[in-house]
Write a structure and sequence with these properties.
alpha+beta; five-stranded antiparallel β-sheet; 10 helices; about 30% helix; elongated; binds zinc ion
């Protein structure tokens, strides 16, 4: 029923339409045409002026074939990371790669083609199903920005799947919460050769803070990173300002808060150790910290309906199934905090965010089959 040749052709077509974050317009236009051709009512929201994209998030609504069946959400993102322009896919049997100069874009076009094929099969084969909302977001790779600006009131479904994960036959049910941080260290400028005792080096304060910090894989649940540092003017000037960008992630919100507090304290502690008196006036190093919650955790229990649906569907098809956690966020993190019960299903992408990215056509076929089963099962269970 699921048509492998159709999946392959559609995948090859979509990866050749560039859609780097904020430039999803061309692929959104193509997908609108495809979805309308399949019988959906398609709407593109007006989030473009907030995300900076040349299009909005795309919602396609398909009617159900079973009266009163609960609607189901299928979601993927349209954007890719860079280098993602002029992708030239190379096909070798069932394996599809890029030519090595760009990413492939299987993240997340493998998810998109699995969704399209599943909905086609449900409708062509007249498999009993409820209404299906297909949501294709923009700017996911920039920090889930499209999803954050999407109004979930536009969806009929309150249960569904995000397809945006590497591997196959796996369901991500736990993903971290994340904080984005910026620190500005203020020191005191002075001539490095003539009056070094009259300066406070912001670079030195930052160095002491970072050296004292727990970073990397802090625990099984928590990771942290200082990813950018910028400051100073010249080798003969004691630097009075350094800016740093950092992040922390944790599967537990308590763990996230503890790590964030620890990172702030390292800066405070380092700054407290640096003060000078110049001309009778005392100067102290100081740190400005800004912390923003980037996204909330995904934490879906094995007993929830969505996990049970995928587990039962996998059993019915005789394919393996397991749930797992990941260290990365996805649109699922955003929707779960807004009352939509979602988990993130793997859809065949591999070695993502690299020029070695590849997919195996058989994984995309298997994912489409699983979606057909899940959506059918959802309609049969009240
Ligand atoms: Zn992705």
């Amino acid at each position: 029923m699921v048509n492998a040749a159709r999946i392959k052709d559609e995948f090859l077509e979509l990866v050749q339409i560039s859609s780097v974050s904020r430039r999803e317009g061309a692929v959104a236009k193509r997908l609108t045409k495809v979805l309308e051709g399949m019988g959906a009512a398609v709407e593109v929201d007006d989030s473009g002026h907030k995300t900076g994209s040349d299009t909005g998030n795309l919602v396609a609504r398909f009617p159900g074939s079973v009266p009163d069946a609960a609607p189901f959400l299928l979601c993927a993102h349209m954007d890719t990371v860079m280098p993602g322009d002029n992708v030239r896919p190379v096909v070798n049997g069932d394996i599809i790669k890029s030519d090595g100069t760009t990413i492939l874009g299987g993240d997340d076009k493998s998810g998109i083609v699995a969704i399209l094929e599943a909905v086609r099969v449900l409708r062509e084969q007249r498999i009993a199903h409820g209404p299906v909302d297909v949501l294709l977001t923009v700017c996911e790779e920039m920090g889930l920005v499209g999803a954050k600006h999407f109004d979930v009131g536009r969806l009929r479904a309150r249960t569904g799947l995000v397809l945006d994960c590497d591997g196959v036959h796996e369901l991500i049910t736990r993903a971290p919460a994340a904080n984005r941080m910026s620190f500005t260290v203020h020191g005191l400028e002075a001539h490095a050769g003539i009056a070094p005792e009259e300066g406070i080096s912001a670079i030195r304060v930052a160095a002491e803070a970072i050296a004292a910090m727990r970073l990397g894989r802090v625990s099984a649940q928590t990771t942290a990173n200082v990813g950018r540092i910028e400051g100073g003017l010249a080798s003969n000037i004691i630097p009075n300002r350094v800016m740093l960008r950092a992040e922390a992630r944790s599967l537990s919100v308590d763990g996230l808060e503890a790590q964030t507090a620890h990172m702030r304290e390292c800066f405070e502690h380092a700054a407290a150790g640096h003060r000078v008196t110049v001309g009778g006036r005392e100067h102290a190093a100081r740190v400005e910290a800004r912390v923003d919650r980037d996204y909330d955790p995904l934490d879906v229990a094995d007993s929830t309906r969505i996990v049970q649906l995928v587990a039962t569907a996998s059993r019915a098809l005789g394919v393996p199934f397991r749930t797992r956690s990941t260290g990365g966020g996805s649109d699922a993190n955003v929707f779960t905090g807004r009352g939509v019960e979602v988990a993130n299903l793997s859809c065949g992408m591999r070695e993502i965010h690299t020029v070695n990215e590849w997919v195996d056509l058989r994984d995309m076929v298997s994912t489409a089959r699983l979606l057909v089963e899940v959506v059918g099962l959802h309609a049969s269970k009240k």
